[in-house]
Specification:
Chain B: This is PaaI family thioesterase. The complex is a heterodimer of chains A (about 170) and B (about 150). Chain A has about 170 residues and is an alpha+beta fold. Chain A has 3 helices and 8 strands, in the order H-H-E-E-E-E-H-E-E-E-E. The chains are: A alpha+beta (about 170), B alpha+beta (about 150).
Amino acid sequence: MKRPEPVQVIKGRREAALTGLVARVPYIQFLGVEFDRRGDELTAVLPFKDELIGNPALPALHGGVTAAFLEITAIIELGWAALWDEMETGRIAAEDITPAAMPRLPKTIDFTVDYLRSGLPRDAYARARINRSGRRYASVHVEAWQDNRTRLYAQATGHFLMPAPNG
Amino acid sequence: MDPETKTKLARQFIEAIPFSRVLGMQLDEISEGRAVCSMPYDTRFVGDPDTAVIHGGAVSALMDTCSGAAVMSHPDAPVVTATIDLRIDYMRAATPGQRINCEATCYHVTRSVAFVRCVAFDDDHDNPVASAVGAFTADRGKASRRSSEALS
């Protein structure tokens, strides 16, 4: 019987895949969004910085920052889900996980953000749930919070056009 | 508050927003319930590395700010507002290298809510990049109620 791969090998491959996916998008770097991975589960993290403020009087995060943070979380979740399948079924070999080999990202069709509370000047977190992912279209829901997981400060639903296979 | 003072306050507020400044946003026009804003193309705002097209999130920041400006300049809305919800439809990819322009209209204000429509386009003005609809808070609050009472 074949021995299971050492844990470092598996972790290394998954981290390389996630980094490759995220590092290619300049706007993710611009906002400073990072991803925390536990198995296949991703949590997007938006570390606070002063330039993300939209209302200096409160102060509160800019609505556009929150919208972008949620949209990034949804897009990376979709890209990651596709990549995960490729990787775990062995269709992509470890040595092929390079930035150039990353799948094309889905395109946003529409995105609706619900601003539930004003975004405080501190770190924010978000997780996306793919409610439906077909061959061509996907529907994704995203939830974002700051201090308290059950007190969401924003949520969003979006529809995405999936990249054509090998296209 | 007379419309001129209100527009001036709205302009000052919009131009002081840290994130809008970072994006290089500018307020091109503002009048009663209507605002025009624009933002330069910047490689840091790219969302699709394969095509160099700007990220939807950068366009949404412009549309959110422009919509807020339209609300603040509306004669029946307070100068303070917050986004309740914003839905953006992305019709096509913005052409890399071109400025993104945005026109927002605050078309209705109730005692507590302001409704806004907004369109974004690049150099091709007849072929929008994105459109948005949103609801914003328009809560006049105690302070302004008191001041209007003082006037009557």
